[in-house]
């Protein structure tokens, strides 16, 4: 279920009112978008243990009782079995088809470690899927581009190159459960869009399970933290954690989960570098911030003064 809080205004005081709405089972993530162009935000919910995602429609008065479940599992048969659940973990919103209306992007985990009855591998790797909006006032959806990603840790939407098109980034782990990457799809996104791969190296060296996007400031005209430049862009912010062997669960490179690595997007070449390797002496286009927290699992950046450059970096500290 989803809990919504709306303001209840009076002449002398204000308060909030909580309402609970049902989704399909095991909601994991939420995203906000105006899907029917009525200037009121609707809610999209990623649901695990199902074949669908859920959209809750805003009636314009803050009521989200109208629910729509959208079938996203590859098997379109409504009698699809439990082992064909899409298991959607992450959901984001953006205009990925350049038609002026909000679409949805999801990472559906599927069943990558599935086996046959005799124990032989029969895994169905995850994928990043664009759910295309049928248009304003339509409330219809269709499956757009799909890209295979064995496992994903995080999903991000950002207009990286400031061209007005929303881009999709996915932080993934390949089938060897060792190789880590960030794969970027520049919008508009179609089935022929080629991902830009930035290899992050083996998990035994360092692990990356959370990231975000924001402008470090290196490409701002007349200033920014890096100074100079002639174009605007958003960059990759990675939360680096200790090295880990995912096959055994053993720590292979002990350390704190507190370093944030910034990898610059190059708005002249319209790409990220092919690889990134952590170093205490960062190279050109790389930056490292030590937040001095022992255990962190997520991060966020924000532009508080509206100049387009990230001013605040926040981590959740488990201690």
The number of helical elements comes to: 0
The residue fraction in helices comes out at under 10%
Give the overall average pLDDT.
88
How many beta-strand runs? 21
Strand content: over 45%
Shape: globular
N-end to C-end Cα span: 29 Å
Tell me which oligomeric state these chains represent: single chain
| Class based on secondary structure composition and strand pairing | mainly beta
Q: How do the helices and strands follow one another from N- to C-terminus?
A: EEEEEEEEEEEEEEEEEEEEE
Largest sheet: 5 strands, antiparallel
Low-confidence stretches: 5-13, 222-227
Radius of gyration: 21 Å
Give an overview in words.
With 319 residues, this protein is mainly beta. The protein has a domain at 22-149. 0% of the residues lie in helices and 45% in strands. It has strands at 2-9, 14-21, 27-33, 42-47, 52-57, 66-71, 88-94, 103-108, 127-133, 141-148, 151-158, 167-173, 179-185, 196-202, 206-214, 235-245, 250-253, 259-263, 286-290, 296-302, 312-317. Strands 15, 16, 17, 18 and 19 form a 5-stranded antiparallel β-sheet that branches. It is globular. Mean pLDDT is 88; it is low at 5-13 and 222-227.
């Amino acid at each position: 279920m989803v809990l919504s809080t709306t303001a209840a205004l009076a002449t002398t005081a204000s308060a909030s009112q909580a309402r609970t709405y049902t989704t399909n089972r095991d909601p994991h993530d939420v995203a906000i978008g105006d899907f029917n162009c009525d200037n009121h935000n609707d809610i999209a919910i990623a649901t695990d243990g199902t074949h669908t995602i859920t959209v809750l429609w805003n009636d314009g008065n803050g009521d989200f009782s109208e629910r729509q479940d959208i079938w996203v599992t590859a098997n379109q048969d409504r009698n699809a079995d439990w082992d064909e659940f899409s298991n959607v973990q992450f959901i984001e919103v953006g205009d990925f088809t350049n038609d002026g209306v909000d679409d949805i992007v999801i990472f559906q985990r599927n069943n990558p470690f599935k086996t046959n009855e005799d124990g032989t591998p029969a895994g169905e790797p995850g994928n990043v899927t664009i759910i295309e909006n049928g248009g304003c006032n339509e409330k219809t959806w269709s499956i757009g581009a799909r890209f295979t990603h064995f496992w994903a840790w995080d999903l991000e939407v950002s207009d990286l190159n400031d061209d007005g098109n929303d881009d999709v980034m996915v932080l993934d782990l390949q089938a060897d459960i060792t190789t880590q990457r960030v794969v970027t799809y520049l919008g508009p996104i179609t089935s022929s869009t080629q991902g830009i791969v930035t290899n992050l190296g083996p998990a035994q060296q360092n692990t990356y399970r959370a990231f975000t996007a924001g402008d470090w400031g290196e490409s701002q005209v007349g200033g920014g933290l890096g100074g100079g430049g002639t174009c605007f862009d958003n960059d990759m912010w990675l939360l680096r954690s200790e090295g880990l062997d995912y096959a055994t669960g053993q720590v292979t490179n002990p350390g704190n989960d507190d370093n944030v690595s910034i990898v610059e997007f190059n708005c002249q070449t319209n790409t990220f570098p092919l690889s990134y390797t952590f170093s205490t002496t960062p190279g050109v286009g790389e930056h490292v911030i030590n937040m001095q927290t022992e255990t962190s699992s997520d991060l966020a950046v924000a532009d508080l003064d509206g100049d387009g450059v990230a001013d605040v970096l926040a981590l959740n500290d488990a201690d």
